[in-house]
Amino acid sequence: MGAVITLLSALLLWSLWRNGYLPYRLVPLKLFTPGEWWNPGTSGGPRTIEGADALTVYEALLFGLLVYGCGRIGNFSELFRRHVVERGQPFLALAAAVAAGLTQLLVWNEALPVVRPVLVLVAAVAGGEIYQSQTVVNIIYGLIAAAVLWPFARLGRWRELIAARRGTATPAPADDLAPATETSADRWPELRAAGWTDAAETLTAEVRTGRMNDVDVARLRHAWAEATRSPDRLAPLAEAVLRTGGAAALHPSGRRDLPRRTARHDVLTGQVRIGRCAEDPHNPYARRSTGLALDPTLLGTSLLAVGPPGSGKSERLVRPVVEALGLRALAGQAAVLAVGGAGAPLGPDEAFDVVVRVGNPASAHDLDLYGGTSDPDEAAAVLAEGLVGDVGSLDSRRAATVLAQLLGPYRAAHGHFPSVPELRELLDGAPAALAALRAALEAAGHHAMLRELEARARQAGGPGDPAPVLADRVALLDRPAFAGFFATGPDARPFELRSLGQYPLRVRVDLPERGHAEASRLLTRLLLAQFTAITAARTDTTLFAGLVLDDATHAVTAETVRGIRRLRSVNAGAVLTLRTVDDVPEALHTPLLGAVGCTAAFSGITTWDGKRFAEAWGKEWVETREVAQHTVFADQPFTRALHALRKLVTGKAVTTDAVTVRQVEKERWSASELAYAVPAGHAVIRLTTVDGEHAPPLLVELGGR
């Protein structure tokens, strides 16, 4: 609104000037020019041609000052940056082209004082005879058009856009580059400080010639920072830089970028832009129309997104986060596990190092139900959480004890954990399976494990025995569609989730949600339990580990909520999406919202879900104004007569307003506002960093440039 008022004021002022309504407008010009050029009086116009030419140049200078002052007062540069530049190409170039065409039209129609002042100045310098040549006139006109067009070409970055579209972008010559100091970032001062000047020069040349992208820069800076912790690794890294330049310290996959980016990323800071804060009274004034991005300091507190199908959770939140973590993995700074149904928009196969398609015989990798651990107790605890963690009437610790009584003896006898059919037989108490296992233990002399097996045999069939429930859940995975999957023998090819905590891997797991919904939920719950257990047990937490669940329905349990709380202290985080909070047991609603630092309520949620978010986000102090109208009773006869006359004419009694201002606590977002006031394509997002800094809930236009 301020910009509009400034523009209208400038137009009014210029109109008053051009039409001669401003007094003394020519006085400054007459003070510096000969008097014989002007008619008498302060308002007298030019008498000679020289006076008319001086007035033309004078008006052009005043118009330039007016444009400059209007731009500064109206803050048009900030508006241009927010609403045009941040939307990126090709919108930026198109907007600049439209503005350039409009400006050219106004210039050549002499609505803007540009052409005549230039012609006057050229004639004053070179003489009027110069216009006798039509060629010279055409050259001057061409230069004027180019001069008007040049600022818009710079603002619209036309040259960069054309070079990018042709794929022939070439770096600027060394002479045209901005001067760089020895400590500027593009000259790699950390390498120079360590004495590797040749390596720094190599990387500087790679950057300036465009042979390095943002992932290469982030990867090499991270590799150098890691190498400084082990001095014996500095020399090999510097020599690799001298040999291969920007291709040094490559990711094990050999990739230097993702095949396609759908969001705007800042790889050096690890940020991914997910949208733009809306112009809404709920948003703080300073945050309106500003961009909103996520980075590891936010994802480290974990994020919960709730919204109905079609609200944009997968396309506008999950996909950008998976891309950002994938780019950080290529830079050697993160590992990501993305879990979703087959066909979920998590990215193409080329964007991942490992793709596990559960139930698909063409899958190159299998899934290890035991997470790659060799400890029977640890494997039993995690597997029990995945199998029966959602059964509120069953204690998962008792289930873990039952599994440990079978997994330990089986591993001692065979050197590996049982496959799904074998585990099902053991849980069912099949006599042949138990007898074979007992015989193997006796032959190998594993007396301690034999006692474990005997204890399981004594407890089988007792009241509250969790084995039947465990067997029923394992039966969900013992289906023909999963034949050959979850193998554990020497010929198995499983992907062990434990490797996520050691290597910058990009892993995607496709679940068969359509035909095996219950099995998919079981596996999602198991992967979440394995992830929280594995990341908590890491000794080296320099690598950020991220888990993204595209649908966490029935995957959250009491134990995984406790595990999510621990993630921020071990440099890890999880992104969970739900269609409704009711997909989580009611007893876990409050603990889950309290465990995650970042929450997002998408458009279309119910008032019940909105109530839970409103309670989690708390209240704030606001200033309220209450206006009460009181009837005025006059004491004087004349005043009473006037009041009576006014009431007769208007039909209303004479009143006075009493204004009461007070501070009250009010919900930041009410349940009704979250359910009905959030537009489509928007979400209300509350963010918290691992350091405890937080922002109020912001209404964000997802994907907004």
Automatic annotation (TrEMBL):
Q: Does the keyword Repeat apply?
A: no
Source domain of life: Bacteria
UniProt xrefs under SUPFAM superfamilies: P-loop containing nucleoside triphosphate hydrolases
Could you list this entry's UniProt keywords, alphabetically sorted. Answer: Membrane, Transmembrane, Transmembrane helix
Q: Which residues cross the membrane?
A: 54-71, 91-108, 114-131, 136-153
- What name has this protein been given in UniProt? ATP/GTP-binding protein
Supply the source organism for this entry: Streptomyces nanshensis
List the taxonomic lineage: Bacteria, Bacillati, Actinomycetota, Actinomycetes, Kitasatosporales
